[in-house]
User: What shape does this take?
Amino acid sequence: MPSTSTSELLLEVTDLNLVLNTDVYRPLNWRDLFTALAKDPFGTLFHEADRLHIARNISFSVKRGDRIGIIGVNGSGKTTLCRCIAGMYVPTSGTIVRKGKMRAVFDTAIGIQPELTGRENATLLAEFMYADQKNKLKIINDALQFSELGSFIDVPFRLYSKGMQARLCLSLVSARPCDLLILDEVFDGADVFFSEKISARVLDVIHRSGAVLFVSHSFDQIKKVCNRVLVLSGGQIIFDGEVEKGIAVYKKSGSQSAN
Amino acid sequence: MNKWLIFSQQIRTLTIANLKSRYRKTIAGFVWVVFNPLMMYGVQSLVFKTFLKLQVPNYALFLLSGLLPWIFISQALEMCTSLLVTSGPLLKSYPVHPLVYLFAQLVDNAINFLAAFILLLVPVWYFQPGQSLPLLLLPIPLVLLLVSVLGLAWLLATLQVFFRDTRFLVTFAISICFFITPIFYPTAFVPEKFRWMTMINPFHRLIDPFRVVIYNFSFEAFVNSCFAAAIVATASISIAYLFWRKKRNAVYLNI
Assistant: This one.
């Protein structure tokens, strides 16, 4: 099992900063605007845009064999960082250099067309996840067979329970390895992790993939999957290294912010 | 695999899925989509030609060349405006370019448009034939129309993320534009004083090449109208692209 790091770089993030404008949340209807103008005419007209500094000077590199857990309290920028790496957010400054094929999943209980059946949604999901693979039909059939949804495969996706939706999605995600796999809280909120079979398959694809970024709130999962953790706090990396130490740092920072 | 190939494959798969999902559980399915333009066309040609007695030669062909592109524009814009908002959860779950969703919706509409268009053109042509050779030029106005509507739909869908009023404004603007755009009447009917309104109307610019090709072809008019439509297409797609580039992060934050 290639669990030790080699020297091949798969991802390099340098001085990444992401600042988002949250100005759009200001009062927009006429009445609110009028009251705001009456109270503070200058402030309303010439205000500085509200900004959220989500990622601050983030630098790290990922080598083949790295299984990186990303932990941090809610709102510390874990998901946004992953979305940046996946190419959804464009960084305000800094660079992200990615090598090889990437696959990212941020929600497992989602159907593309709820009206369509599980099989049809699987076809669509496969098109989104495995766009560059040749033999998609085989991937889909394997995943459907593995998901053990039985006769539910040809039932509209909107009738699925959350667990069933996750089962279908996870079966697809875990069908083929890739160079960089980003999994954001994929086991959270669904009953899937209790089903040993699917978690074994996801763990297997994690081990066969080049590198993994794994966002989770569960220390058990992090310990099971990862060989390195990043601890985020307020958009900064406050720890990068061994799993046990990282969890300790996170617990300490969490109890500090709670006080 | 090539980036563009992946892009077009995703659009194709999503378009097919959209079509399937829309017609599932309907009895007549696709018929409804084509039925709407056919009925609109039938009623309008009856009212304008027989009731109001508009003095336009070969009115059946004239109306067809203006009304069908217009129905495509209005339906595509209405369907695309809320698209980024409604596919928000999906956009945030998988790194797929939002344009894939917009394209799929547009192709879907274009298929309906072409189906209705051909269904009407064949019988109308049979009874009131025009010049048939220029019809070979139809792909040019069609591409210009698609590009312009894509740009406009992209812009409106992005705006809708920030101002949820956009959708209502679009519906409102479309019903107004139906009357101020020379669709069921020729440009010549517009008094000199109001001619500028037609001149700056981008929808007129997009529909005009269709009218030239189908109804009153002359090479000079064709080149001129296509040139104007090309300006509209370029402007629309570049404004949409620039706005998207500026607002991309904010879109992801707000959907």
Notes: Chain B is about 80% helix and 0% strand.
